[in-house]
């Protein structure tokens, strides 16, 4: 037996205090909410320079914008239920969440049949949705490999497992036959079944005891070598670097040396940044300017199949998430969690087909586009652009809210396009310059209720001087819109931004360790009176926070459901310049609220 090393790394997990009332009623939409590093806020969005990278074999990824994530494994057998009890949280964590004895969990393998597995249909579905790549879990935290590993018998080739001995090869072949790239997820550190694999210091079965370094040497490294050589994946998707130091990560990282064009993410640990940032379940409001990033997100509230999770995002929300992420220059890795017999849940198929119908008409506004020249989210929708080497620039306006008066403002844009049309039907569009920016005059009704694309062609690059951050208006007040919010959730989910313009709101604030942060720019240090439009079905406690300054807030109920009221949150001193204002729940006294605008008024 190997000795077990206690863990020091703490995975970000949500507290068990979920309040389900709002969950099903209000999570109408997706997790389209932001997050930003706590350090200096990023500079305003600037188009990336694709030419600079063109030779590294990774350019396809920077242009792909849309991929399919597949979480498939033995956890799909219990499907979220253990001993007749629904287990909360993401389905692929059931082994840990329910502390299932390993011998019991292993027995599920005899029902992992893959009997209806149709890799050709999966690949065709990804293609139809307009996706450019597929990433599947070769081994998740439960240690179970979807291929026959030479260093473990806990895999599909297990004598009790009725599934074929290799589920990855047929998928890789079909995905590549569709012209898509093929990626593999591998959980290098957390492994709850191989002795010594990290359980983050919380073993629940004596069979987990062991030495983490020995596990990395004898299981993780050889398995990484196996998947690299057998499948030559285009992407290696690490996850949860629990206990990974540089010394531990280095040998695993070095296995990639023979594969210089492989894309890796920032989750190997040990300080290895990889090629991509991986915001999970939220969309950072300004993306990561100049950096490659990929937002991964579930369609309901789980990655691995859970039979009782019916909390599906609408296809409109999914489409708008794709539009939002593209406008920030990132990719959207959208998850499906197949059943143990290999069926992608019908609601996922419906949504992917809906996105596919939209992509058939509008994909040029997504694929190979660059981030919006507008640094802030626009109230009516989003923008992507293509800049040719000649400088000629196409702006794609993703109109989420087709204006009743037909008028769309492109703030601070002074150039005049040489042509303007609706992408879906070629309808001509007029534009007029104004002091506030370019006004686009739309006629008729939206060709698409979710996202209509308007194409503006310019002879040269466009210049936009819009501020990336909320700043005071002429009357001195400062308004923070739901769209300005950076939401900080966890691996288990996040606060959702739902709707746009005046109807936008932050909802699904289920956990007391999730918080909202706004970045703003003030001309002088001063005290501000803070009011907010909230719907609070139950009394709740939170804090206004700026660095070390905290102001306690006691919120009385505003009424049942969505009873909106403008309430006083208190007064807080903020320094001058770029700073932040956070709304932080008080643990133990938190009940979910929904939030619209937050308004700051200078205290004389
Ligand atoms: C988290 C979870 C994991 C899921 C992944 C997807 O790291 O631990 O279950 O696979 O996120 O991004």
Task: Tell me briefly what this model is.
It contains 11 helices and 27 strands. The chain is an alpha+beta fold and 604 residues long. The protein is globular and about 70 Å long.
Structural class: alpha+beta
Task: Give the CATH class of the largest domain.
Answer: Alpha Beta
What is the end-to-end distance? 70 Å
Rough outline: globular
The biggest beta sheet is recorded as:
7 strands, parallel
Over all CA atoms, what is the radius of gyration?
A: 24 Å
Strand tally, please?
Answer: 27
Low-confidence stretches: 1-51
How much helicity do the residues have? 10-25%
What is bound: which ligands? alpha-D-glucopyranose
Oligomer: single chain
Q: How does this structure look, described?
A:
- The chain has 604 residues and is of the alpha+beta class.
- It has 11 helices and 27 strands.
- The protein has a 7-stranded parallel sheet. Strands 18-21-26-23-24 form a 5-stranded antiparallel sheet, with no helix packed on it.
- A hairpin with a 2-residue loop joins strand 2 and strand 3.
- The site of alpha-D-glucopyranose has 10 residues, from loops.
Features:
single chain, 604 residues, alpha+beta, TIM Barrel, Immunoglobulin-like, Jelly Rolls, 3 domains, 7-stranded parallel beta sheet, 5-stranded antiparallel beta sheet, 11 helices, 25% strand, globular, binds alpha-D-glucopyranose
SSE map:
Layout: H1 20-26, H2 50-53, H3 59-64, E1 66-70, E2 81-82, E3 85-86, H4 94-97, H5 102-107, H6 119-128, E4 133-139, H7 168-177, E5 181-186, H8 212-231, E6 235-238, H9 246-254, E7 263-264, E8 294-297, H10 315-327, E9 331-336, H11 346-362, E10 381-387, E11 393-399, E12 407-411, E13 419-422, E14 430-434, E15 437-441, E16 452-458, E17 478-480, E18 486-488, E19 496-498, E20 505-507, E21 515-522, E22 526-535, E23 540-546, E24 549-555, E25 564-574, E26 577-585, E27 594-602
Parallel strand pairs: 1-4, 1-9, 4-5, 5-6, 6-7, 8-9
Antiparallel strand pairs: 2-3, 10-11, 11-16, 12-15, 13-16, 14-15, 17-27, 18-21, 19-20, 21-26, 22-25, 22-27, 23-24, 23-26
The structure holds alpha-D-glucopyranose.
């Amino acid at each position: 037996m190997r000795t077990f090393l206690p863990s020091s790394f703490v995975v970000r997990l949500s507290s068990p205090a979920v309040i389900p009332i709002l969950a099903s009623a209000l999570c109408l939409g997706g997790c389209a909410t932001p997050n930003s590093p706590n350090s200096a806020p990023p500079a305003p969005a600037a188009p990336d320079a694709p030419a600079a990278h063109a030779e590294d074999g990774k350019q396809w990824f920077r242009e792909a914008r849309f991929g399919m994530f597949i979480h498939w494994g033995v956890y799909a057998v219990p499907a979220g239920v253990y001993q007749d009890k629904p287990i909360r949280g993401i389905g692929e964590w059931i082994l840990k969440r329910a502390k299932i004895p390993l011998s019991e969990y292993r027995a599920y393998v005899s029902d992992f049949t893959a009997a209806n597995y149709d890799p050709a249909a999966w690949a065709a579905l990804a293609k139809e949705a307009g996706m450019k790549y597929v990433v599947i879990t070769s081994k998740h935290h439960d240690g179970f490999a979807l291929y026959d590993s030479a260093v473990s018998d806990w895999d599909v080739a297990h004598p009790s497992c009725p599934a074929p001995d290799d589920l990855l090869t047929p998928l890789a072949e079909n995905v590549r036959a569709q012209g898509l790239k093929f990626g593999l997820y591998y959980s290098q550190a957390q492994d709850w079944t191989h002795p010594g694999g990290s359980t983050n210091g919380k073993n629940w079965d004596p069979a987990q005891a062991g030495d983490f370094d020995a596990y990395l040497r004898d299981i993780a490294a050889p398995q990484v070598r196996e998947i690299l050589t057998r499948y030559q994946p285009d992407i290696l998707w690490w996850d949860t670097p629990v206990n990974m130091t540089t010394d531990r990560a280095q040998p695993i990282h070095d296995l990639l040396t023979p594969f210089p064009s492989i894309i890796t993410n920032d989750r190997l640990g040990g300080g290895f940044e990889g090629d991509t940032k991986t915001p999970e379940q939220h969309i950072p409001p300004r993306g990561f300017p100049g950096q490659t990033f990929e937002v991964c997100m579930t369609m309901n509230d789980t990655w691995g199949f859970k039979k009782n999770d019916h909390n599906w995002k609408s296809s409109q929300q999914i489409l708008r998430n794709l539009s939002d992420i593209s406008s920030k220059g990132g990719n959207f890795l959208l998850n499906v969690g197949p059943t143990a017999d290999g069926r992608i849940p019908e609601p996922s198929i419906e949504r992917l087909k809906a996105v596919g119908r939209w992509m058939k008409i509008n994909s040029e506004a997504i694929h190979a586009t660059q981030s919006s020249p507008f640094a802030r989210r626009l109230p009516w929708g989003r923008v992507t652009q293509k800049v040719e080497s000649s400088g000629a620039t196409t702006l794609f306006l993703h109109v989420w809210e087709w204006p009743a008066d037909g008028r769309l403002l492109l703030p601070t844009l002074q150039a005049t396009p040489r042509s303007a049309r609706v992408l879906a039907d070629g309808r001509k569009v007029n534009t007029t310059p104004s002091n506030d920016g370019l006004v686009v005059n739309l006629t008729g009704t939206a060709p698409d209720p979710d996202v209509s694309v308007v194409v503006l062609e310019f002879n040269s690059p466009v210049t936009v001087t819009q501020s990336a951050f909320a700043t005071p208006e002429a009357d001195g007040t400062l308004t923070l819109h739901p769209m300005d919010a950076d939401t900080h959730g966890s691996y288990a989910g996040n606060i959702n931004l739902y709707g746009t313009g005046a109807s936008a709101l932050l909802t699904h604030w289920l956990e007391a360790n999730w918080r909202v942060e706004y970045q703003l720019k003030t001309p002088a240090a001063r005290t501000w009176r803070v009011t907010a439009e909230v719907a609070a079905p139950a009394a709740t406690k939170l804090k206004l926070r700026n660095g070390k300054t905290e102001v306690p807030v006691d919120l009385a109920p505003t009424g049942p459901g969505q009873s909106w009221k403008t309430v006083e949150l208190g007064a807080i001193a903020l320094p001058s310049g770029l700073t932040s204002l956070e709304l932080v729940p008080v643990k133990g006294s938190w009940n979910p609220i929904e939030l619209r605008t937050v308004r700051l008024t200078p205290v004389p």
